[in-house]
Amino acid sequence: MAENTNEIMKFDNDAGNDSMKTYLDGEYFKMPSVIAFKGPQDSTAPISFENEEDKESYMSNFLYHMDVSISSNAVSENRRFIVGNSAATSGLPLTSFDLNDLSGKSDVDLTALLTLSLIAGNRVKKAYKKGEGLNDPLKVNVNMTTALPILEGKQPGKIDKYRDRYLNATHVVTFHNFKDPIVVQIKFNHVYVGLEGEMAQLMISNSINNNKQLGQIIINQLKKCYPKVANSLTPEIMGKLIQNSLGIDIGGGTTEWTAIINGITNLNVSTSLMQGFDNVLEKARLYLQTKNLNFENISQVQEYLSSDTDDFFSNNKEIVKQAITDNAIPFNEQIVKQTSSVVRQIGSQLNVNNGFKM
Known about the structure:
With about 350 residues, this protein is α+β, with helices and mostly antiparallel strands. Helix content is about 40%, strand content about 25%. It has helices at about 50-60, 85-90, 110-130, 150-155, 160-165, 200-205, 210-225, 225-230, 235-240, 275-290, 300-305, 315-345; strands at about 5-15, 20-25, 25-30, 35, 65-70, 80-85, 95, 140-150, 170-175, 180-195, 245-250, 255-260, 265, 270-275. The strands form 2 sheets. It has a 10-stranded mixed sheet. Strand 9 and strand 10 (about 180-195) form a beta hairpin.
């Protein structure tokens, strides 16, 4: 058995309202931004395995099976809960980001609960793979990059307060999957908090002139979606245009406008709309209940649309799609209105480019 070490982890964390999109030591992982609290009546027998193959499969996919409690000054919640994918399929009441709550991501416990669970779960997964003992506490020091919505991050002291939430504590995550609990102690060495929309826009702006391959990837995507606009573009022209540009990031719960002028973010006009596509899905979900299509949350709507269509129920999928389309129209109008406002504030310095999806 290998000796337990104090691991150092690099964690790139896009904590979205609908999903967590992360890189854990360079490995991409995405999961729904939901948890489900477990009461005494929801307790299940500890996991056991029929054979070594089942055990290997379970541990290699441990991030899909997290059953945790957390002790930390960063959160007020210490109840036991399941996380992400296992929560979404559990049938238990789900806790997700409240689309109608004006509290920011930095203020609510859910952001930290999801973040700490993912870090600890990845530490357990790697410890098992390396043959470390799981009966002794596992330790990990984290360097994290994350972001807040522009309007939230622009508030005085908000970024510092959010950063300190992680830095100024030792976070203890306990996994209850097995007969013996697994304990992970997390400390943060560094936490960089950027602004949503800005980070990707600046990365493209700063690197495209030195990375012709990246420029060509963007152009190829633009040609696929907007051939009339993109046919005359080259990586060199794109490198010049991107220095004065407007990025629009439509997320789950917010939409971000990032104005880049002379390669620098203009925070005076960059802004957020405290609505995203999840608001569209939620309005559609409520309407669909009147049509006897009972989705308990928007994750179920998304899963339904991505699933194979049963010919017997094919008409239902068209009803769902139409409900989303109908509710997207006023949302689109809000985006157009806000975009016009930002463009007017920037003036003639801006090269307005159509959006693209990578």
